[in-house]
Each structure stands twice: as structure tokens, then as C-alpha cells.
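Annotated sample (chain length 154).
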Amino acid sequence: MSYPDHAREQTIGAYDDIALYDGVRTRRVLAFFIDYAIVLALCVPVAVLIFFVGIFTLGLGFFLYPILFLLVAIPYIAISMGGPNQATPGMRMMNIRVVRLDGRPVDSMLAIVHGVLFWALNAVLTPFILLATLVLDRKQTVHDWLLGTAVIRG
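Output written by the structure step:
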């Protein structure tokens, strides 16, 4: 569905209030640590499940261990950030959420791409990810800017 130009401008203008971005950088970092801890905690029961799958499949299931973190993190992001709250549990604790600048809701596919880009860009451009928030509009990180999203309070 395409939006008329004036409707798109009104939607983008809705996210121009600087109060929406007050303290977002700090809250994002804290939310990351909370979410990381939750994903690591969820890895424990999944690792046990993979152990039993490995026994049942005569060892083939053990090949899932190298991607254990991804098996947990991708659904975690897709369900939470791609859900109606548009925020992971850590983000909700920090009272922030992800929004699309075109006004549409964040769906699970965009949430997954957002998470994958975050990890991929961190592997290559670690210092620039956070430094970008000092330069880009709306305190966006590089992956926010590339996807047309922003993190706001509330």
C-alpha cells in the first residue's frame, strides 16, 4: 500500500519531536544487555532440547549447537520486536520501542533484518554503530538509518 506524499510527510513529521529521543542512547544500551541476558538464559533449555534431539537423531542434532544463539535470538526478536509492542522485553523495561518512519508497524521480517544488520554491522563497524547516533537524525544507528526506522521513548 502506498501513501500519498502529504500523508507520508505528516507521518515522518510525527517523529520529529526531540522529546521522543531523550535518553534513547543510554536506554538502548541497557536494553541490549537485558535482552542479551534473556536470550542467553533461553539458550539453556534449548541446549538441553538439542541434546535430546541429538541423541534421538544419532548425533545429527548436535550440529545445531553452533547456531544455538541464532535459534533462540531470531524468534525472540521476530516475536517481540515484530509484535504489537514493537519492542523486545529489554526495550519495554527501558520504555523504548522501534518505529518505522513511514508510519507502518514493524513486522517480524523487518525485526529480523534489523537484528541481523545490527550483529553484522557490529562485526565490521563496531565503534561507528554508536558514533552514528551523534550525527544521524533521531539518534539513529546505522542499521536504523538503512532500514528507515528509529527508536523512540514510549
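Annotation: The first helix runs from residue 5 to 13.
Annotation: The two ends are 27 Å apart (CA to CA).
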